């Protein structure tokens, strides 16, 4: 953690006292063409349909969901990531003074959750819901009870999907399977959550046990592994699958996430942990400063995407999120650029002070 705090401290020292309070910040109003946003969302839907076709059906309805969701991703990586355009299009529809009605946004929100859930992967659904809440919170702070309620619902939803995957795959040797079979849903939830969080320590210990003995140091390759897997003709399995094989573990479903600390060790050994955590601390502080301090709605989205996925990488590792973060940020910047109606915009309305109009033209959103 020393490396992390050193990296974060570089930015924190420079921004202390300079970041505005959320209630005092004025976000610029982005005059985005709704047609471009709907087109972006539609392309994401088409990509999801292509993913279903290449998967031979809708993965969530497969008899063996735990393994079907993995098989479906093999050779279908591009449509899967292209489907994230649904998220990008939706988030841009939340911009201040958006021309998209509240009712339409609710319909698209529900549709996006359902389509993302159809893949059987919880992480994309969870990311979409959490980032949507964060964006709304940074535009207009959400009350604490609402945040806790939404968080509890998201966690229970993730648990429900996990238990469903275990049941659909008929994993009778799992304790959660046996508890659900006996209708002890509370016990199954408790065991599932405890196992989920215990996995962090187990995975990290496994990484230290197998590297460099059963697997050589990767020298940074794991960070770009998912990019290499998208190259036409590539037969690369996900890196956490390679770790799982090297560890000799045969559990059903996904691979063995190396964790953030573990992935730095996998690539550069013990020294890599300190340097890597310092870089992560620096990036985390930069993304947080951008989200807190910017008046640009587009940069707000970028800052929150970076902040969220750094948090997610603590358990799963950097390699599991680099492609997702790169694609989400790049597509957000490109789509917003194409959707801009003009070069001059106005700031979002705020309560008037001393009878003065606070609106002023700005050059970008």
Word description of this protein:
The chain has 365 residues and is mostly helical. It has 15 helices and 2 strands. The chain has helices spanning 2-15, 34-55, 65-73, 77-82, 85-93, 102-117, 122-139, 144-168, 175-181, 185-210, 225-229, 239-246, 260-293, 297-316, 322-339, and strands at 345-346, 361-362. The chain has a two-stranded antiparallel ribbon with strand order 1-2. Helix 2 (34-55) packs antiparallel against helix 5 (85-93) and helix 6 runs antiparallel to helix 7 (122-139). The longest helix is centred in the last third of the chain and has 34 residues, at 260-293.
Number of distinct helices: 15
Class from secondary-structure proportions: mainly alpha
What percentage of amino acids are in beta strands? Answer: under 5%
Number of strands: 2
Overall radius of gyration: 22 Å
The mean pLDDT is 82
Low-confidence stretches: 342-363
Total count of domains: 1
- Strand order in the largest sheet: 1-2
Cα(first) to Cα(last) distance is: 36 Å
Main sheet overview: 2 strands, antiparallel
Helix content: 55-70%
Please trace the helix and strand order, writing H or E for each element. HHHHHHHHHHHHHHHEE
Q: How would the global form be characterised? A: globular
């Amino acid at each position: 953690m020393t490396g992390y705090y050193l990296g974060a401290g570089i930015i924190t020292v420079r921004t202390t006292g300079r970041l505005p309070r959320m209630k005092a910040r004025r976000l610029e109003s982005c005059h985005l063409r709704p047609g471009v946003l709907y087109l972006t969302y539609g392309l994401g839907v088409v990509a999801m349909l292509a993913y279903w076709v290449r998967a031979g059906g809708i993965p969530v309805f497969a008899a063996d969901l735990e393994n079907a969701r993995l098989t479906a991703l093999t050779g279908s990586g591009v449509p899967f990531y292209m489907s994230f355009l649904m998220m990008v299009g939706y988030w841009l529809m939340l911009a201040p003074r958006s021309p998209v009605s509240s009712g339409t946004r609710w319909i698209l929100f529900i549709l996006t959750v359902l389509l993302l859930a159809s893949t059987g992967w919880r992480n994309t659904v969870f990311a979409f819901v959490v980032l949507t809440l964060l964006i709304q919170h940074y535009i207009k702070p959400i009350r604490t009870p609402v945040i806790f309620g939404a968080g509890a619902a998201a966690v229970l939803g993730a648990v429900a999907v996990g238990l469903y995957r275990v049941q659909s795959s008929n994993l009778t040797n799992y304790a959660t399977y046996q508890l659900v079979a006996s209708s002890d849903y509370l016990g199954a939830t408790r065991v599932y959550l405890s196992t989920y969080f215990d996995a962090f320590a187990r995975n990290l210990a496994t990484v230290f046990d197998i590297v460099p003995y059963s697997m050589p140091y990767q020298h940074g390759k794991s960070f770009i592994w998912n990019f290499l897997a998208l190259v036409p003709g590539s037969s690369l399995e996900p890196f956490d699958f390679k770790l799982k094989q090297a560890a000799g573990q045969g559990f059903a479903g996904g691979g063995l996430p190396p964790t953030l600390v573990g992935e730095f060790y996998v690539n550069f050994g013990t020294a890599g942990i300190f340097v890597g955590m310092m870089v992560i601390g620096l990036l985390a502080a930069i993304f947080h400063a951008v989200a807190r301090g910017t008046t640009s709605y587009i940069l707000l989205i970028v800052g929150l995407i970076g902040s969220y996925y750094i948090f997610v990488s603590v358990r799963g590792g950097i390699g599991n999120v680099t492609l997702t973060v790169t694609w989400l940020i790049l597509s957000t910047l490109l789509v917003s650029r194409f959707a801009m109606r003009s070069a001059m915009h106005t700031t979002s309305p705020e309560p008037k002070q001393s009878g003065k109009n606070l609106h002023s033209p700005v050059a970008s959103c």
